[in-house]
């Protein structure tokens, strides 16, 4: 994983591996850069026909940005444009009126040293989808994320919640969705995976409202912590143990690379 605040920092290690002609698992530098840049990812996915919340990008200068914000329907969600691991995704990231949003934008911009993505908040089921494989890629599963304690406030799968997930969250997997909704989410996940050029594995986040899955973001470097990664938790709910999950990801890479390099040279 790269360091700093740039939108292409996740592509540094695979770029070096490609330069040294060392095969590796996962997506290439272009996909990693496009996925980390949330504005770019939304443009690519939307062009492929997947729904995504209406959005605009704030890069300093409230006056110049106010017209684009006025075109959005409140409430809206504001988050750093080039972050992963839920950085900047907080319960307080939902804004119900323009004055509160405007007062927070400059602070977010300065805190994270990058643009801020502002998108319409979709009040619906929070879903994360695991995708594994290549040509064809397959949906591993759909996981619905729910708060353990219901609240009148909009649910946000926030950094605070993830840090205390055992007490704060409930994971519903396989997600309790009807057949039509499951099919729509599967199709949107596979279309997003393809639009971004993902390889081997990715986790893709959606909000589902009125039968429509809205793309939020994609993570082609999903966390694989044995105890807390969303993809690992999803696999566990599906009776896929950690070793089997890692083996499936490796198998996908081996199949992709088999016609390019001898198997013994794959790291």
Walkthrough of the structure:
- With 267 residues, the chain is of the alpha+beta class.
- Helix content is 37%, strand content 21%.
- It is built from ten helices and nine strands.
How do the helices and strands line up, and which of them pair or pack?
Elements: H1 12-19, H2 29-36, H3 38-47, E1 55-58, H4 62-70, E2 76-80, E3 94-95, H5 98-112, E4 116-120, E5 125-133, E6 137-147, H6 159-163, H7 165-168, E7 169-172, H8 179-195, E8 201-209, E9 212-219, H9 230-237, H10 242-257
Antiparallel strand pairs: 1-4, 2-3, 2-4, 5-6, 5-8, 6-7, 8-9
Task: Please summarize what this structure is.
It is built from ten helices and nine strands. By secondary structure, it is of the alpha+beta class. Helix 4 (62-70) packs across helix 5 (98-112).
Provide key terms for this protein.
single chain, 267 residues, alpha+beta, four-stranded antiparallel sheet
